């Protein structure tokens, strides 16, 4: 299995990454992490990359990290398809103070457009 | 979350703070009161959510298992939130809540299936916004699934306006007081 995880630095994307690498270590999956541009997060690309590295270091896996510039949804879907990934994983949304799950615009775009199987991590 | 949420300029007024007494569309006597923070009331609310039809869940709430319902309620029946409860005798027919955000309050209402379509939801929103206005709440927002036309119509009727319609859920907001 070749797995692509899209990370934009939001809390749900980091959680999705943590669960994905844990699973990948268990099943010996090949993981690529795509760091996305997002105007919504205040974090710099370097900060996100450091967070990603510290998550990977905790697990016994080898993972590739790449950057995708431009519109995050379309770039992620395009990359997943052109590089023949089996599986695309992204965060499953944020929770409001009330406890309501809110799907990000990235997740909406990916769900509606990806021809690669998508998992939203909760 | 969404830091650029817009609010109407016009202040919506005239809501009735609790307690409210009325007869619903099915001739049942209903009383809406602010939540009293007693274990009896807490358990009665847990009981309502325990019976809630999973088909009426919205965006993951209410949760479906009792321990999760209790955790969720402990969070929103907390002193920082404003809660009103619709009672039919000792049974909870519905519940509405305002949960503080950074600068505003998020609203949600829930009516038990057996009590739906009898006007209770409209009165719960009326009472909750009256309670909020009395407690100096100035801005309230909510999200609603776009296919839930009945809820959208109810919110529009009391003065909510759509502020974000680009995603799966519609965001709506209302102003109860002018900015200071």
Description:
The complex is a heterodimer of chains A (122) and B (180). The longest helix of chain A is centred in the N-terminal third of the chain and has 17 residues, at 11-27. In chain A, helix 1 packs parallel to helix 2 and helix 3 (72-82) packs parallel to helix 4. Chain A has a five-stranded parallel sheet with strand order 3-2-1-4-7, sandwiched between helices. A two-stranded antiparallel sheet of chain A has the order 5-6. Chain A has a single domain (2-121), classed as Rossmann fold (3-Layer(aba) Sandwich). The two termini of chain A are 21 Å apart. Chain A is globular, with a radius of gyration of 13 Å. Chain A is of the alpha/beta class and 122 residues long. Chain A has helices at residues 11-27, 45-57, 72-82, 105-113; strands at residues 2-7, 30-36, 63-68, 87-91, 94-95, 101-102, 117-121. Helix content of chain A is 41%, strand content 27%. Helix content of chain B is 27%, strand content 29%. Chain B is of the alpha+beta class. The two termini of chain B are 23 Å apart. Chain B has one domain (20-175): Gcn5-related N-acetyltransferase (GNAT) (Aminopeptidase, 3-Layer(aba) Sandwich), CATH 3.40.630. At the A-B interface, strand 5 and strand 6 of A face helix 2 and strand 4 of B.
Cα Rg of chain A: 13 Å
Please tally the helical runs of chain B, counting DSSP H or I stretches of 4 or more residues. 4
Run of helices and strands of chain A? EHEHEHEEEHE
- Proportion of strand residues of chain A: 25-35%
CATH architecture of chain A: 3-Layer(aba) Sandwich
Helix content of chain A: 40-55%
Number of domains of chain A: 1
Largest sheet of chain B: 8 strands, mixed
Which overall shape of chain B is indicated by the principal axes computed on the Cα atoms? globular
Question: Major sheet of chain B: order of its strands?
Answer: 1-2-3-4-5-6-8-7
């Amino acid at each position: 299995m070749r797995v692509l995880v899209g990370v934009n630095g939001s809390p749900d994307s980091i959680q999705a990454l943590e669960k994905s690498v844990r699973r990948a270590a268990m099943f010996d999956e090949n993981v690529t992490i795509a760091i996305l541009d997002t105007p919504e997060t205040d974090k710099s690309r370097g900060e996100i990359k450091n967070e990603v590295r510290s998550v990977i270091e905790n697990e016994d896996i080898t993972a590739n990290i790449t950057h995708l510039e431009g519109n995050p949804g379309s770039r992620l879907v395009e990359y997943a398809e052109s590089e023949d990934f089996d599986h695309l994983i992204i965060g499953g949304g944020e929770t409001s103070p009330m406890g309501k799950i809110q799907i990000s615009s990235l997740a909406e775009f990916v769900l509606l457009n990806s021809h690669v199987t998508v998992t939203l991590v909760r | 979350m969404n830091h650029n949420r817009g609010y109407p300029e016009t202040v919506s007024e005239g809501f009735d703070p609790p307690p409210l007494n009325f007869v619903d569309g099915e001739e049942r006597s209903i009383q809406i009161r602010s939540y009293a923070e007693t274990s009896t009331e807490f358990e009665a609310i847990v009981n309502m959510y325990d019976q809630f039809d999973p088909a009426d869940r919205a965006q993951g709430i209410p949760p479906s298992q009792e321990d999760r319902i209790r955790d969720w309620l402990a969070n929103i029946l907390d002193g920082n939130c404003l809660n009103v409860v619709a009672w039919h005798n000792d049974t909870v027919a519905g519940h509405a809540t305002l949960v503080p955000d950074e600068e505003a309050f998020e609203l949600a209402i829930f009516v038990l299936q057996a009590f739906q379509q009898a006007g209770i939801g409209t009165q719960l929103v009326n009472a909750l916004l009256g309670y909020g206005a009395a407690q100096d709440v100035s801005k309230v927002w909510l999200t609603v699934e776009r296919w839930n036309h009945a809820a959208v119509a109810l919110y529009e009727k009391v003065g909510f306006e759509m502020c974000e319609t680009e995603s799966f859920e519609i965001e709506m907001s209302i102003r109860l007081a002018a900015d200071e």
